[in-house]
Amino acid sequence: MKKVNVLLLALILGISTQLNSSTDIKENSLSSSVNEAVKVENKEQEKEQPTSENSIVAETKVEEQAPTSTVYISPLQEIKTRNDNLGTVGRLYIPTINLNVGVNYANFYTDQNYDAQAIVDRADSAAYFQFGSKTTIADHSYQGFNRIINLSSGAEAYLKRQDGTIEIFRLNNKFTGRNISEDLIDTTGNSVQNMSGNLIIYTCYGTGDGVMITLWDKIA
User: Fold this and answer.
1) Which run of H or E residues covers position 119?
2) How far is CA 192 from CA 28, 32, 50, 104, 152, in A?
3) Which domain holds residue 18?
4) In this predicted model, which residue has the larger pLDDT, 65 or 166?
């Protein structure tokens, strides 16, 4: 009888174990199904809702503006529209060294009213005179003419006259020399009158009679 009871208990326990196992499997299966459903739902929500980064990028793109184009204005065009004071001759512009100054007639030979020294001593006033076969413009170095030291070959100068016309010159030579009253010469004694160029622009340089001389060809 005891054997039967033990066997019956074993059978009962076995059935109970199977039932529990079956229940666990079902619960686990149900739990897995629920979890999978939740994952699928979360993924769908992620697809539908943009991230904060995407939102920022979208907003930034809306705020972007097309770049503005820059219109180039040539020195000649700018000089034509400027309203600077003109001297009795006009005004000299050399854009590459940011030099512009009023230009006034100075006659060394016939009219004492055009005193060259008084003209160059005034602010914003360079002297304009004929020196042999060449037109000449001169001024003090401390009034801005020292900038001609920094000129490079090919630089252009513009002389705007009283009537609004503009003459254009191109630099062809620059050198140190001497002002010996009756002439301007280079360091070897050669006169500027023997050099090419329609226009001389010069200023004092160094000590004594030292000068910085530039020669220009008229191109327009």
Assistant:
1) helix 116-121
2) 109, 103, 79, 22, 19
3) 2-63
4) 166
